[in-house]
């Protein structure tokens, strides 16, 4: 089953092409890592896939729902984690989840919210204010916020930023579990380390264009790195 499909998605801003006919499909249970230099369009690609930015050309479908005609149906299947945590730091961890559940129209009682915190190893801090949390703890809470909606697709923009080695290992394990349960993942990253042990495919973005889309396993991390270096050099 195809979870997300971009069909020649194009975005022009002030006459400049930011995303150039991006086309790919992500199947249920598949993980794609998007690589690219700064300014290549990685965040834009994720925001378009998340229906946060409407493309000026092409089409996007999420779990069969056309994002132009059925945006709300598509968004109900998605969880998007951007650079910011989007947490209310003077609320407790549990209060943050209650707020986001109410805002998103998600039916979740207190035990379900506490279970979401337990899933990200934050149950001991459920009633603590978020402000003094470490960057890794805030990232975990942001992920718990996604989990309460039970999305079929996760769109992650540099999710390993700010995580120490333990936090990165924890996140890799959670992404592997989400994929094994049939979830689809699209992750932007500038690193060849964390996340690529879980990724099935690597898409290399240059100048808003998908210059390569390859399987990770046959190449290995070093093979993907070499392909990236050649692709970016040729696209410069």
Quick structural overview:
The protein contains 7 helices and 10 strands.
Mean pLDDT: 89
The main β sheet shows up as: 6 strands, mixed
Number of helices: 7
Total number of β-strand segments? Answer: 10
Spatial order of the strands forming the largest sheet: 6-7-8-3-9-10
**How do the SSEs run, as a string of H and E?**
EEEHEEHEHHHEHEEEH
- Tell me the structural class: alpha/beta
**N-end to C-end Cα span:** 36 Å
Question: Would you identify the regions where 5 or more consecutive residues have pLDDT less than 50?
Answer: none
Rg computed from alpha carbons, rounded to a whole number of angstroms = 18 Å
Beta-strand residue fraction: 25-35%
- Categorize the overall geometry: globular
Considering DSSP H and I runs of 4 or more, what fraction of the residues is helical? 25-40%
Explain the layout of strands and helices.
Blueprint (H helix, E strand, L loop, with lengths): L1 E12 L2 E12 L3 E5 L6 H8 L7 E6 L2 E2 L4 H5 L2 E4 L11 H11 L6 H10 L15 H13 L5 E5 L7 H16 L3 E6 L11 E6 L2 E7 H20 L1
Parallel strand pairs: 3-8, 3-9, 6-7, 7-8
Antiparallel strand pairs: 1-2, 1-4, 4-5, 9-10
Helix pairs in contact: 3-4
Task: Pick out its properties.
four-stranded antiparallel sheet; six-stranded mixed sheet; alpha/beta; globular; 236 residues; 35% helix
Could you characterize the architecture of this molecule?
- Helix 3 crosses helix 4 (110-119).
- The model has no long low-confidence stretch (mean pLDDT 89).
- With 236 residues, the protein is an alpha/beta fold.
- Strand 9 (201-206) and strand 10 form a beta hairpin.
- It has helices at residues 42-49, 71-75, 93-103, 110-119, 135-147, 165-180, 216-235, and strands at residues 2-13, 16-27, 31-35, 57-62, 65-66, 78-81, 153-157, 184-189, 201-206, 209-215.
- The radius of gyration is 18 Å and the shape is globular.
- Strands 6-7-8-3-9-10 form a 6-stranded mixed beta sheet, with helices on both faces. Strands 2-1-4-5 form a 4-stranded antiparallel beta sheet.
- The chain is built from 7 helices and 10 strands.
């Amino acid at each position: 089953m195809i979870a997300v499909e971009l069909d020649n998605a194009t975005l022009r801003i002030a006459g400049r092409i930011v995303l150039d006919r991006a086309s790919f499909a992500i199947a249920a249970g598949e993980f794609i890592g998007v690589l690219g230099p700064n300014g290549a369009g990685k965040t834009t690609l994720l925001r378009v896939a998340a229906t946060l930015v409407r493309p000026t050309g092409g089409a996007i479908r999420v779990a069969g729902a056309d994002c132009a005609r059925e945006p709300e149906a598509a968004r109900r299947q998605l969880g998007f984690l951007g650079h910011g945590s989007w947490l209310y730091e003077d609320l407790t961890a549990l209060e943050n989840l209650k707020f986001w559940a109410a805002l998103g129209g998600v039916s979740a009682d207190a035990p379900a919210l506490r279970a979401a915190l337990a899933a990200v190893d934050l149950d001991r801090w459920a009633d603590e204010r978020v402000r003094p949390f470490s960057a890794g703890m805030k990232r975990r809470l942001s992920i718990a916020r996604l989990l309460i909606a039970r999305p079929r697709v996760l769109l992650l923009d540099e999710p390993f930023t700010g995580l120490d080695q333990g936090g990165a290992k924890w996140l890799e394990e959670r992404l592997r579990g989400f994929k094994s349960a049939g979830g689809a993942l699209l992750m932007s990253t500038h690193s060849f380390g964390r996340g690529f042990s879980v990724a099935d495919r690597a898409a290399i973005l240059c100048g808003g264009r998908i210059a390569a889309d390859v399987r990770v396993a046959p190449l290995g991390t070093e093979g993907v790195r070499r392909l990236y270096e050649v692709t970016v050099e040729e696209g410069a």
